[in-house]
Amino acid sequence: MTTSTQAYGEPWYWDNRYSNEPGPFDWYQKYLTLAPIINLYVPPSHPVLVVGCGNSAFSEGMVVDGGYTDVVNIDISSVVIEAMKTKHQDCPQLKFMKMDVRDMSDFQSGSFGAVIDKGTLDSILCGNNSRQNATKMLEEIWRVLKDKGVYVLVTYGAPLYRLRLLQESCSWTIKLHVIGNFC
Question: I need a labelling partner for 90 at 20 to 30 A (CA). Which of 18, 60, 133, 170 fits?
Fold first, then answer.
């Protein structure tokens, strides 16, 4: 079945995908590739939120290879959250919650030292009302970050477009790192 990328913002799309493709999948990069950047900005003692965690091994890598002690993972798919809770039930450093990144009202303001996003903003920008939904997402991320917290965005989007979006939504201080060679 072919589905438009506009469905990327819909829970049913992700529930269906994770029901049909339960194996682990890392969007864009694995933890070890991003570890030098993550470690530069995010101390292992900081509480970390990974948005749109899916069934990635990224958070597990943060705990096992990076020594992070408090990694909260959210995803819009109840299917993947239940699978990840079961898979990591013996790892208290990892927590999994079903939640929409556009409404993280279950978290108090300033709850996290870092928010990591590997492709969630990209997915939201593919969907209906993309600009409005992306702005909601970024405002929520801004809200849950501690003062001087870090938002790590891993994207395939054009840097100038992503930078403009970040600058318009919140008072971000932005540092750009390019991984690999891109045309």
Answer: 18
pTM, full prediction: 0.90
Higher pLDDT, 161 or 103: 103
- Domains in the chain, ordered, with CATH? 5-169 (3.40.50.150)
DSSP per residue over the chain, as a string? ----GGGGG-HHHHHHHHHH--S---SS--HHHHHHHHHHH--TTS-EEEET-TT-SHHHHHHHTT----EEEEES-HHHHHHHHHHTTT-TTEEEEE--TT--TTSPTT-EEEEEEESHHHHHHHSTTHHHHHHHHHHHHHHHEEEEEEEEEE--S-HHHHHHHHHHHS---------S---
